[in-house]
Structures are given as structure tokens and as C-alpha cells.
Specification:
By secondary structure, the protein is an all-alpha fold. It contains five helices and no strands. The protein is globular, with a radius of gyration of 15 Å.
Length: 115
């Protein structure tokens, strides 16, 4: 079983692998990590990592559709006091991911540069 600090470090390593397009290596690390996670927070983090991998590998262009909105929503939800540890692990991991990929405004958010 991993400590909270070790889990967070491992999540950061996996997020970095995904950000640098080493998705297969990230998947392998996730599989090795899965049996070591016993906390509800860790289970939420693993769910988020799985969703991020799916989004990157199967969505249009491998990106979240609106990074700014995703970050804003994840931060708001993570601050709600009614969340359990699974929710908190999930949303904190998504928030880390979106910050790591440096959100850029899109046309839908109204912040796109004008031509």
C-alpha cells in the first residue's frame, strides 16, 4: 500500500508521461500502481488518469475540448465540501492535468485572439 505522498508522486510521474506522449508507458505504470492503491482518494486519482488516457488517445486531436472551462469546473467542484475522497482524488488529478497542459483559450470560451 502506498502512502499519500508516494501516490501523489506517482500520479505526477504518470501525468508527465501522458503530457510527453508516452501513453503506453503511462498505462503500464497505472497497471502496476492499481493493486497498491487502497485509499478512496487513490481510486479517484486512478479513475481520472484512466479518463485522461482515454481522452488523449481517442478524442479529436487528443485534447480536451475546452481546457479553460475544464480547469475552472474541476477547481470549483474540488472545493465543494460534500465531496468524498474518491471525488477529491478524481478532481484534483484532472486539475493537475489541465494545469500541466497549459490551457489556451478557445473560440467557444470567447477568449480567442482575433484575426
Amino acid at each position: 500500500m502506498l502512502s499519500a505522498g508516494m501516490l501523489r508522486e506517482e500520479v505526477d510521474v504518470i501525468l508527465e508521461l501522458i503530457a510527453t506522449s508516452k501513453v503506453e508507458e503511462a498505462k503500464q505504470r497505472m497497471e502496476l500502481l492499481r493493486p497498491q492503491v487502497a485509499s478512496e482518494y487513490g481510486k479517484g486519482a486512478l479513475l481520472a488518469l484512466g479518463g485522461i488516457v482515454t481522452t488523449v488517445t481517442k478524442s479529436k486531436g487528443g485534447e480536451l475540448l475546452d481546457k479553460v472551462k475544464t480547469l475552472r469546473t474541476a477547481e470549483r467542484i474540488a472545493n465543494k465540501q460534500t465531496l468524498d475522497d474518491v471525488d477529491r482524488g478524481y478532481f484534483q488529478t484532472v486539475t493537475k492535468w489541465v494545469k500541466k497542459i497549459k490551457p489556451q483559450p478557445t473560440r467557444e470560451s470567447g477568449n480567442a485572439p482575433r484575426a
